[in-house]
Design brief:
globular; four-stranded parallel sheet; 4 helices; alpha/beta; two-stranded antiparallel sheet; Rossmann fold; 136 residues; 39% helix; single chain
Length: 136
């Protein structure tokens, strides 16, 4: 029955429900850090604000994300979901032609990546028609 609801219940809806009901409950452990639902909600709200205000990111715009597996990845995903932007998840271990193919297939107009991923497309000159933002 849950899957037939209209509008559909999304992972963002479930996250926000838990963030309201149990904000201090741990959600994510990364190395020695523990992030609660409240922490992740706060970080994702800040990221959403920055993306919408500083970059004029609007709902429906596809964003390619090239981040390592760390908490930033989670709150970036939440921020994009809050803005209504589809996220093209790119494997941060992919390089060269495979990365270029993934970027072109995603048809993203913006790329979010950690500084360590800059210039890993396997050629100089950036991403062609894909606009790029390299953020920490």
């Amino acid at each position: 029955r849950r899957f037939s609801r209209r509008p559909a219940v999304t992972l963002l809806d479930v996250f926000q429900l838990h963030a309201r009901r149990r904000p201090h409950q741990p959600l994510l452990r990364f190395q020695d850090e523990i992030y609660t639902y409240e922490d992740m909600d706060r970080h994702s709200n800040r990221a959403a604000w920055a993306l919408s205000r500083r970059l004029a990111l609007q709902s429906g715009r596809t964003v390619a994300v090239l981040l390592p597996n760390e908490p930033t990845y989670v709150w970036t995903w939440l921020a994009l979901a809050k803005l209504g932007c589809p996220m093209a998840c790119l494997n941060c271990n992919v390089r060269g032609r495979a990365l270029r193919h993934a970027l072109e297939t995603a048809q993203a107009t913006l790329v979010l990546a950690s500084p360590g991923e800059r210039g890993t497309t396997g050629h100089s000159g950036g991403f062609g028609n894909i606009g790029g933002l390299w953020s920490p």
